[in-house]
Write a structure and sequence with these properties.
- The structure holds two protein chains of two kinds.
- Chain A is mainly alpha-helical.
- Helix content of chain A is about 75%, strand content about 5%.
- Chain A folds into two domains: about 5-215, Orthogonal Bundle (ABC transporter involved in vitamin B12 uptake, BtuC); about 280-369, Winged helix-like DNA-binding domain superfamily/Winged helix DNA-binding domain (Arc Repressor Mutant, subunit A).
- Chain A contains 16 helices and four strands.
- In chain A, the strands form two sheets. Chain A has a two-stranded antiparallel ribbon. A two-stranded antiparallel ribbon of chain A has the order 3-4.
- The longest helix of chain A has 26 residues, at about 225-250.
- The mean pLDDT of chain A is about 90.
- Chain B is mostly helical.
- Chain B has a single domain, classed as ABC transporter involved in vitamin B12 uptake, BtuC (Orthogonal Bundle).
- Mean pLDDT of chain B is about 85; it is low at about 290-300.
- The chains are: A mainly alpha, B mainly alpha.
- At the A-B interface, helix 2, helix 4, helix 5, helix 10 and helix 11 of A face helix 3, helix 4, helix 5, helix 6 and helix 11 of B.
């Protein structure tokens, strides 16, 4: 396999591994907790690195992941005092833990080969240089094995506890009543997120891990209503980030992980604007339709009302301006539209309802009642 | 005493301490509103989203003038804040997911631009680091003037619109019924917060900047129930911990300024949560004779709007 293909493969495997638990992060309002975890693992990584002197050691991954879970516990404890809100607690805990990591690194580890840039930003391009060998055979990039394992772990956990996670996400109380232990599931999920973040930082950096975890499910959330589709769509989006992001980075000679996150943002932006039903264009269009229907009903009801003085067609715009508070241009547009649709017609120079107009007016009266 | 003497005489230390004090004051005051409105983490998103603005401003103008870079940072930071609000208001994507997404996507774009600049325009790696973690030691008098001017303007606007911002924080619906443009005020408050963040990037960097907004406000919140006192106290705590962080980091080798300031702020928050009368944890534990506050949980978010 060429080094370029290896980089793309690792990027795709990392993106899918991050995207899988992401759906539950988005639905459970834990997105910023994943941001906190990905920063707060720094002191864990630094201490683990000073002890093991290897970034890929399972001991380091376990230790740093424990810092991630500690972050969750700390945030929940601080929030539990009732003195600080959850969002402020998150915003306090991770900068403090991150600062401890930076200070440890600056004071005690300045001569080891680990700098904060590497932890924050990662470098996918270096992936092919760190290889796993066994009995003299080259087994491929080490990151591929690490992230492949994490991907399988995440997929296995989600498959095994899919029903329980789904229920505790959408109805925590019912899940607790049925004995599904949502608390245990919550910490299991957060441990998984921590392990994923620690394993992925080496390749993509700890800030962009957040993009890979949150962007795919948030984008998919605009496109589908079903949890299983959301997860498959997320995985597909992760692969798309990897391939398109790599191509962009190669063209600009820029950071691959940064380019993947940029693609993630762009694809979300496209979904935000153009998603069928849930996109901005669709909801704008829907609002216009609602407004038009309301105007039509109101006008039909006004004309059909026996107490309404007759409205001469040429004066319609001014009259509706006075009586309904419509702007003359809006009034003209609605009247012409309803005439074209056969809802209103002109009789002896005055506006009157047709049979269809009468039905519309009755409908409006029913709505009002 | 040596340190105090140096604080007055040593140019670098004096500049850094002044910058940190300004930053803590402005961040603490404006952060109070963010914390009270449940928008604590907007600062994190804005700070990360400033990175592409800084790189973009340099790419477009080729200038390292702090004002130009700050303008770029403010532009993308504000754009990210706007996108977060739009996404959360108009779609079902939750607010925190919108924050996390914009934060990391903008940061990713910033990283692309920064790496592109390094490899093509010969900008040094140091330029990138300075904004990631801050480079307080590189502050010069001109930077402090710029910080003071921009921060001063933000604080003056805050004081001029005191009543309106108070209403926005505690009862926006009532403000709306009075005919006040609450949307506009919300946008203005976000802009002020963006200013507070942008002037701090050079000192503490994008990753830790959000703490400067949150920590002094949360600490101050423990000691008072009144907005005016909270804002003033947060400004004081921010300034004091800023100076303390600068001094401590200067007194030891290999102690970066930004993280040291954040750790000082964290210590003050922890102390306030333990010791503050009525609310503090020790106060609650130590006083079984006292009638415990009946709803400690409900008091976390909203102090009384009643004050001068």
């Amino acid at each position: 396999m060429s080094p370029q293909a290896e980089v793309q493969l690792v990027a795709a495997v990392t993106a899918v591994a991050c995207a899988l638990p992401g759906a539950f992060l988005v639905l459970r309002r834990l997105s910023m907790m994943s941001d906190a975890i990905s920063h707060a693992i720094l002191p864990g990584i630094v201490v683990g690195f000073m002890l093991t002197e290897s970034l890929a050691s399972p001991l380091l991954i376990a230790g740093a992941a424990a810092t991630g879970v500690l972050t969750v516990v700390l945030v929940e404890r601080i929030e539990g005092t009732g003195l600080v809100r959850e969002d402020a607690a998150i915003g306090l805990v991770f900068p403090v833990l991150f600062s401890i990591g930076v200070v440890l690194l600056a004071r005690y580890a300045s001569d080891v080969h680990l700098d904060v840039d590497a932890v924050l930003l990662g470098e996918l391009a270096f992936v092919p240089f760190d290889r796993l060998e066994w009995a003299g055979h080259d087994l491929g990039p080490r990151a591929l094995w690490v992230m492949g394992t994490v991907l399988l772990l995440n997929a296995a956990f989600l498959a095994a506890f899919y029903k329980e996670l789904k229920l505790s996400t959408f109805d925590a109380q019912l899940a607790a009543t049925l004995g599904f232990m949502p608390g245990v599931l919550h910490y299991a999920l957060m441990s998984l997120v921590s392990v994923t973040a620690v394993s992925a930082f080496d390749a993509v950096g700890s800030i962009l891990v957040v993009a890979l975890m949150v962007a795919p499910p948030a984008t998919a959330y605009l496109l589908t209503d079903r949890l299983n589709r959301m997860m498959f769509l997320s995985a597909g989006l992760g692969v798309a980030y990897a391939l398109v992001g790599y191509a962009g980075a190669a063209a600009l000679d820029a950071s691959i992980a940064g380019s993947m996150a940029t693609v993630a943002g762009l694809l979300f932006g496209i979904a935000l604007v153009a998603a069928p039903e849930r996109g901005l264009v669709a909801s704008w269009h829907r609002q216009r339709q609602h407004a038009a229907r309301f105007s039509a009903q109101l006008l039909a009801a006004y004309i059909a009302n026996p107490d309404t003085p007759p409205v001469p067609r040429p004066e319609a715009a001014n009259r509706l301006h006075d009586r309904l508070g419509w702007t003359p241009s809006h009034a003209r547009a609605v009247v012409s539209d309803l005439q074209e649709r056969g809802v209103l017609t002109v009789h002896n120079g005055h506006l009157v309802c047709t049979e269809a107009g009468q039905r519309l007016a009755d409908e409006a009266a029913q709505h009002a009642a | 005493m040596d340190l105090l003497y140096e604080l007055v005489t040593d140019y670098t230390l004096r500049t850094v301490a002044l910058g940190a004090a300004l930053l803590g004051m402005v961040g603490g005051s404006l952060g109070s509103y963010a914390v009270l409105r449940g928008r604590s983490l907007i600062g994190d998103a804005v700070a990360h989203a400033a990175l592409p603005g800084i790189a973009g401003a340099f790419l477009l103008t080729g200038s390292m003038n702090p004002l130009v870079l700050m303008l770029g940072a403010a532009t993308t930071g504000l754009a990210a804040a706007l996108l977060v609000e739009t996404t959360a208001h108009t779609t079902r994507v939750p607010y925190d997911s919108a924050l996390a997404l914009m934060l990391s996507a903008f940061f990713g774009l910033g990283l692309v631009l920064m790496t592109y600049l390094q490899r093509h325009a010969g900008a040094s790696q140091a330029g990138l680091d300075a904004f990631l973690f801050g480079q307080a030691a590189a502050l010069v008098t001109r930077d402090v003037y710029v910080m003071a001017a921009l921060g001063g303007i933000a604080l003056v606007v805050m004081l001029l619109l005191w009543k309106e911002l108070k209403l926005l924080s505690f009862n926006p619906d009532f403000g709306h019924s009075l005919g006040l443009p609450m949307q506009l005020l919300n946008g203005l408050l976000t802009t002020l917060i963006v200013v507070a963040i942008v002037i701090g990037l050079q000192t503490v960097g994008v990753v830790l900047m959000s703490a400067v907004l949150i920590a002094p406000a949360v600490a101050a919140r423990q000691w008072t129930n009144q907005l005016g006192r909270m804002v003033a106290l947060a400004a004081g705590i921010g300034a004091a911990t800023g100076v303390a962080g600068a001094v401590v980091s200067a007194s030891m080798r290999n102690l970066p300024t930004g993280p040291t300031i954040v750790l000082c702020m964290g210590a003050v928050v922890a102390g306030s949560m333990l010791l503050a009368p009525e609310r503090g944890l020790l106060w609650r534990m130590g006083g079984p004779r006292r009638a415990a506050s009946p709803h400690p949980d409900s008091s976390s978010s909203a102090p009384s709007p009643a004050d001068s």
